[in-house]
Amino acid sequence: MLKNYLHKNLLGTHVFLLLVALLGGMATSLHAQQGVAYDSYFVGNGDMELQVLRPGETLLGGTAVPLAGAHLEEVLRAAEYISQFVSHGYRATQFGYVTGIDSNGIGWVGAPGMVVSTDYVTALLKHPAVQNGTALFKTTVHEFGHNLGIISGTDVGDLAKTINHGRNVATMDAGGHLATGNMIMDQASWMGDRTFFSEIELAIISNRGPVAARNINLGDHFGYSEYRDGQTMTIDQEFAGSDHSYRFTDGTWSSDKMLAVGLHLAGEYKVVDMTATPVNEIGNQITLDADISASGYGGQGIRIENNKNTVTIAEGRTVSANGEYGVGVLVTRGNGTTLNNQGTIEANGPEGIGVWFNTGGILNNYGNGSIDSAKFGNNVSVYNYDNASIGSILFEGGTIYNGSYIVTVHGIFKIVVV
After folding, report:
1. Which pairing describes strands 269-272 and 115-116: parallel, antiparallel, or unpaired?
2. Residue of 206, 217, 225, 222 lying closest to 167 (CA atoms)
3. CB 19 within 8 A of CB 51
């Protein structure tokens, strides 16, 4: 369900899409210039407006594509996500998914402040936190990213370089895209499985975006992000982070923001022929001696996206993602991930998953380690030792393979096979 402050001023019985980041009164003048009929939706704090094209309306030579039901809800959800990054009084409009705009069928940025996308993406998200390939939600967020400052000739700014550990961020001159291989603002945003802005992207927006988007508190959305290979560290109350913001000062990081991440191990990627491959060769060794709570919609306590990472959750520590569609620990890409749990991992909200290996790896659940639920693809080995417990386990493949098995030592849990 969308938050109850989402409402609409419906001027017709059918709704079609969509949006452009404009300030206040500009939306009216643009509408008058274009002669386009629309319906208005308000999201977030109620000050962000989406003007949604009506059936058959034309914009810049294109015809509006129907958008209703789950597709409309997904676009509004994406707009709600975007509304987190703009200040009170910001109003946004976006036009798009229209046909006949250009021969590429990919979509493009039109007049200043206007984003237009064609209807080449209609897939819905399978899960808010992870989606391989295209999706309407991802495309909407991507196009909004241009409105919020990631445009042609972008100087990423000092903050983004700081978050990237003192290194520059690869960008493309044409079209205002990044060239990292795993960010939603890459030209081929479908290459990655992330559905939301990384911390680097938020730092760029904070530097280059409209005035209304220049007060983003990165710590509200990320506890710590690691984009390198071969790092060894302990995250505790004295951990400074790349920007020396000390986000774990009290021994905890918490956020109720939509799609927030407590610990994000992104790593490095190589792009060849529009295919992105994780290239970490050594892997990072991270010990978490702090609590993490990502309680917003689609929140993730820990997200791991690259090769050979080892994450250890210290005894007595809790990693939770107790909002709707929350994931305590999510392993999305790469190989050789090892998760050592000596604490508590939980995701007890609707559709929550405690630990989710979307790719292969090893889970060691030690001592008094507790996991309320888990979901595994193939090639995952799970070891449950001593008094450790896992509430329920779902194997996506439907079969427990030799490389995907449970070894129990004085542990009690239930296995669900579908």
Report:
1. unpaired
2. 225
3. yes
**Closest CA relative to residue 321, chosen from 364, 377, 376, 259:** 259
pLDDT tens readout for residues 268-327 = 887 777 677 888 899 999 999 999 999 999 999 999 999 999 999 999 999 999 999 999
Query: Which residue in 115, 65, 73 sits closest to 95, CA to CA?
Result: 115
For residue 334, give every residue at least 6 positions away whose Cβ sits within 8 Å of its Cβ, in sequence order, or none: 267, 278, 280, 304, 305, 306, 307, 308, 309, 359
Q: How far is CA 134 from the centre of its chain?
A: 14
The dihedral through the CA atoms of 200, 202, 204, 207 has a sign that is: negative
Count of alpha carbons within 13 Å of 51, Cβ hemisphere only? Answer: 28
C-alpha angle with apex 320: 319 to 323, nearest 5 degrees?
160
The tokens for 22 are: 């404009």
Q: 230: exposed, middle or buried (C-beta count within 10 Å: 0-12, 13-18, 19+)?
A: exposed
- Other CB atoms within a 10 A radius of the CB of residue 5 amount to 11
pLDDT digits (tens, 9 = 90+) for 18-45: 333 332 323 332 333 346 677 778 887 7
Q: Give the helix ranges, DSSP H, for 199-299.
A: 199-208
Please report the beta strands in 107-260, taking only residues with DSSP state E, as ranges in sequence order. 108-109, 115-116, 222-226, 232-235, 252-255
